[in-house]
Amino acid sequence: MDKEIINWKELLYPYEQTVEELMLKFNYIKKEYLRLGLYSPIESVEGRVKSAASIIEKVSRKNIQREKIEEEIEDIAGIRLICQFVEDIPKIIDIIRQRDGHDIEIVEERDYIANKKESGYRSYHIIIKYGLNTAFGYRQVLAEIQIRTLAMNFWAVTEHELNYKYSGNLPDDLKARLKACAEASFNLDKEMSTIREELMQAEKMSELKSSLVDNILENIQNLYFKLHMDEADNINRRFIDLYEDGDINKLKDFNEQLNIVAEMYRV
Ligand code: 0O2
Fold first, then answer.
1. pLDDT at 5 > cutoff 80
2. Among 4-8, 79-83, 197-201, whose mean pLDDT is lowest?
3. How far is CA 101 from the centre of its chain?
4. Average pLDDT over the chain, rounded to whole?
């Protein structure tokens, strides 16, 4: 390829605009979640325009003609959406799919999580065409969105840097160690998901317990006006015993019984 005939500034400008716009849009999605006090599946957004050197390397590796660069190199504009948990990845994919036919058009999806690469690389890639409005009219620009967890990202960034240092010729023992690290990081993701699931269960239980307790206390308070003091005291003592016992099912049963009593006295 004749490097001289490429006006890189001209070629890369729309890709810079694309990366900037996409980063802004994905950052706004994160902001929207946070504004509503919700957990955002997107933890952080990164973006880059492929360097001229890296484009030249790809052009010669894949034998791409100069006129075909914009058609055949899909990742000149690259966006990376990083999340905390593996469970966030399908949510992010859905967010992108919902935009299909609007400001973006999905060209291809590559699931390197279900089908990890030989190196151990895991990520979900979506190739899109982004609708760009320029001063000279509308055009579509190819871009690659990589979706991965923090752990997958840590591995990929380190491996990429090492590969660069060894000019793509990693010694076999290092390759093997990196593969082992990829598995360790995958297991870390799985363990974090389990912990998150347990945490969510615990939160649900604590919310349920607190709403049961609110209801029981309200009923007891009202029953003090309707029953003899001793009877209401007995109910109150039973509640304290059950509360200290901590068994949520017993508390549920007690709440149901108390609802019936409260209904009888219409408190
Ligand atoms: P950079 O610096 O991000 O631009 P190819 O470029 O031929 O390897 P292809 O088929 O065009 O790949 O697309 P693919 O494999 O779906 O996505 C390529 C990009 O995914 C790479 O871009 C990396 O960012 C990432 N990637 C793919 N495989 C690996 C891997 O084994 N290790 C790491 N660390 N990243 C990977 P570039 O151009 O290599 O890099």
1. no
2. 4-8
3. 22
4. 94
To test the ligand 1 pocket, which listed residue (55, 160, 165, 174) has its Cβ within 8 A of the most ligand atoms?
A: 160
Amino acid at 230: D
Q: Decide: residue 62, CB within 10 A, 0-12 exposed, 13-18 middle, 19+ buried.
A: exposed
Looking at the DSSP bridge assignments, the partners of residue 100 are 104
Among all chains, which residue has been given the structure tokens 């209904």? Answer: 263
CB-based contact 85:196 (threshold 8 Å)? yes
* Ligand 1 centroid, distance to 257 Cα (angstroms): 63
- Let me know: does 45 contact 80? Beta carbons within 8 Å: yes
Residue 231: pLDDT over 60:
yes
Ligand 1 atom at minimal distance to the Cα of residue 144: 17
Pick the catalytic residue from 144, 191, 231, 256. 144
Using the mean position of ligand 1's atoms as its centre, give its distance from the Cα of residue 4 in Å: 26
The pLDDT of residue 66: 85
Cβ proximity of 162 and 179 under 8 Å: no
Pairing of strands 44-49, 124-134: unpaired
SS (H, E, C) the chain: CCHHHCCHHHHHHHHHHHHHHHHHHHHHHHHHHHHCCCCCCCCEEEEEECCHHHHHHHHHHCCCCHHHHHHHCCCCEEEEEEECCCCHHHHHHHHHHHCECCCEEEEEEEECCCCCCCCCCCCEEEEEEEEEEECCEEEEEEEEEEEEEHHHHHHHHHHHHHHHHCCCCCCHHHHHHHHHHHHHHHHHHHHHHHHHHHHHHHHHHHHHHHHHHHHHHHHHHHHHHHCCHHHHHHHHHHHHHHHHHCCHHHHHHHHHHHHHHHHHCCC
Decide if 218 is catalytic. no
